[in-house]
Amino acid sequence: MRGVPITVESRISHFLKWYEENEKQYQQFAECVMEKLLNALEERRMLHAYHSCRAKSLASLKDKCNKKLYDENSDKYIFKYSDPKNQITDLSGVRIVCYLPQDILPIQHIIEKMFSIDYENSMDKAGLLQSNEVGYLSVHYIVSLKEESLSLELKKYHNMKCEIQLRTVLQDAWSQVFHDRQYKNNAIDRELPKEMLRETNLISGALELLDNEIGQLVKRYDKMAKKMDNVNYQEILDSEVDKEALKKYFHIKFGSVSSRFYNYDNINLILKRFGISTIRDIDAMFNESLVQKILSLNIQLTIDKILMYGMIVNNADKFFKIEENKGIFISREAYGLLDMFVDMGNICKKYDLLIKE
Question: What is the count of structural domains for the chain?
């Protein structure tokens, strides 16, 4: 006797009951993904406007499951999701909202390195538009945790997927006001008057243009202030330590105060022994207070010397054990600077440092 075929309605009903029992875990997964991403942004000192996360509400999921599309072949509406458990990938969601369009690309790079990406279901909605089209724009990634990052505590999230949305503030404002109205109703394009749809697209296009114009204007202001574009700056920070990368970084961070090495090979060896491998590792040693104090000395310093200052402030014991030198001279200016951050009196006694007047 052949089994009774499972209808789409029955499949949807079972799926909704299953989700009701598991919604809490999807909320926890969204919080986990957001925490990992925010930690990565904080480590890189990358600012954004605001963020949020959620598990899809049961009411919203019911609406999505019941969404139908017009099928020309059968001349009737059919369910968009015939197998919702495998087709719907945004049960967990994270949203990162940026100020400017150029802030999005560096975050994309981080996401692509941190998570396993389901590229088939991920999209750049701006990239899907034709040259003569405008509309709702944002970058959507469907991600899961990488196998190597699944600690015992995180094993429960194995194979779970989360949607990460990246938007600008203007894109998010547009979405909050119009997304539900324009896109989530069934067969909306058939119901909207052409004039109304055209007006909606014109406003959307104007916002897209405004977003890009603001981004370009900010770049011009930053260029006048000799501030590095965020995309290029992040690329420099992710570079491995070498002579050219160090010069670029120190030019951005310290300007004309430091532009040359005393002995590159020697300082490069010290950096390796100290555990420094990328420019971002170096950047982590220099908080804004230390940078400003170095600049306030108003004297020319070699890149080597500033790097040594950073390592001493970061971990003096580790630095001087690497150096393995006794009777090192330190200038009065350097002593005064470093003493603002570490106990130089104790360090001088411990490692026989001599103050040079």
Answer: 2
Of the candidates 139, 136, 158, 134, which has an alpha carbon nearest to the alpha carbon of residue 147? 158
Q: What is the pLDDT of residue 132?
A: 43
Look at residue 337 and tell me whether its pLDDT is greater than 80: yes
Residue 206 and residue 305 share a domain: no
SS3 192: coil
Query: Among candidates 333, 343, 283, 346, which has minimal Cα distance to 313?
Result: 343
CA–CA separation, 121 and 106 (whole Å): 21
69 and 115 in a single domain? The answer is yes
Task: Return the residue matching tokens 């009737």.
Answer: 76
Quick: pLDDT tens for 212-235. 899 889 888 877 766 666 667 777
Per-residue CA distances from 9 to 6, 59, 84, 91 (Å):
8, 16, 11, 19
Residues counted in the chain:
357
Reported for 194-199, long-range contacts at CB under 8 A and 24+ positions apart, including other chains, are none
Between the alpha carbon of residue 95 and those of residues 48, 157, 227, 258, 323, the distances in Å are: 11, 19, 28, 40, 47
Please, is 143 exposed, middle or buried when counting C-beta atoms within 10 Å of its C-beta (0-12, 13-18, 19+)? buried
Nearest to 175 by CA among 124, 136, 128, 135: 136
